[in-house]
Amino acid sequence: MAEPTTVPVALSTASVYPESTATAFEIAARLGYDGVEVMVWTDPVSQDIDALRRLSDYHGIPVLAVHAPCLLITQRVWSTDPWTKLRRARAAAEKLGASTVVVHPPFRWQRQYARDFVAGIWRMADETDVRFAVENMYPWRYRDREMLAYAPAWDVSHDDYRHFTIDLSHTSTARTDALEMIGRMGDRLGHVHLADGRGSAKDEHLVPGRGDQPCAELLEHLTVSGFDGHVVIEVNTRRAMSSAEREADLAEALAFTRKHLAPAVRLPRR
Q1: Alpha-carbon separation of residue 252 from 33, 57, 62, 114, 256 (angstroms)
Q2: What's the rounded Cα separation, in Å, for the pair 23 and 112?
Q3: Beta carbons within 8 Å of 14's beta carbon, 6+ residues apart
Q4: How far is residue 60 CA from its own chain's centroid?
């Protein structure tokens, strides 16, 4: 068994929405996070490497990962060409000192991109020390209908990637076994989006411990498995009634994560 390791815990800038990327750096510093993951989206600051570097330096909070603009609302951010988006995400990660770029699998209607995606990710990974960690997604559901929106598949653990991101809100929405998925990912698991869920068709991103996903078990596994990536708190605080309530949720998420990442104390044999 690998020796217990200390795993950095970062705050996704998406966790403070609808507040700004700049606010995420401020909150991460105030609460004692080890860094941030920048969600590149419509906030201009999230797209501006110089502005991100200034925020990182001012707050003393490193950028540990960059989430490429893969969402429906970011289809025109950093170009409409998906490979250009990934090249720019890689360049941002390299300039900011981040070790990981998080990327979603293509939408099914991005046919050419999807056909070349697995091989293309390998090509890009061979050109840099930055990890391209492909994230598990989920089927889209409406009432009794299910749409497979991602290609080659929403369950990326069945495809050949060098590194994976696992998101426990997404395993909840997919109604799949998170621990089995982690087993398939094996030592290619390079990045974690920690959140919770209750199996809703909506991607809930609850504070860990408030749903039915094996958040604690995952964290305890990381501690003893030799995991050398980051755990990123990516939760939904949109319903917070105040900044204080939002910060309380993010403090709770950090405390939960650090508690279950702490190496177990082994008592001496008598």
Answers
A1: 12, 26, 21, 38, 6
A2: 37
A3: 39, 41, 67, 234
A4: 21
Tell me the pLDDT tens digit for each residue of 239-255. Answer: 999 999 999 999 999 99
Greatest alpha-carbon pair distance for the chain in Å reads: 65
- How many Å apart are CA 223 and CA 140, to the nearest integer? 33
CA distance 8 to 63: 12
Model confidence, pTM: 0.93
Predicted confidence (pLDDT) per residue in 36-89, tens digit: 999 999 999 999 999 999 999 999 999 999 999 988 888 888 989 999 999 999
Rounded Cα distance between 60 and 42, Å, is: 24
- CB neighbour burial string for 213-222, b if at least 16 within 10 angstroms, e if fewer: bbbeebbbbb
